[in-house]
Amino acid sequence: SKQGNEQVEWGFLPISKDIQDIPPHKYNLVSAYPPDLGLDDPSLHFTFCHSPHKPAVGIDQIWYTPSSLDCSGLRHTCKSEQHRLDILKSGLPNGFHPSDHMPVGCMLRWTKTDKGNDNDGLDLKDLKEDDHKI
Description:
Shape: flat
Structural class: alpha+beta
Low-confidence stretches: 119-134
Largest sheet: 2 strands, antiparallel
Oligomer: single chain
Number of strands: 6
């Protein structure tokens, strides 16, 4: 729709020119969740499902800097196939999930120490399985 000569998007006027001129940050961030995860079929991987059979992909993310961290594991948003089907059938929130967003999580590990050497600290394989289960 239009308001005066301005194009309105999502119910808001476009961002003013002053704000558009602010330079972007220089952080090199990537998402722990691959960008194409669930794009072919949103019902297979979703983090948001406010209505039955209307899942949304990619709304919830975990961002990290790959120059110092490595993503070594992702949390599955659903506990089982039946859990996924139940959420798709009822939507969220429900009696088991107080939010319309599914919890996301990942395991990150340092790739370098402060001195720039390879990480010689704690390795994930040294942890007991129960210590890092998500």
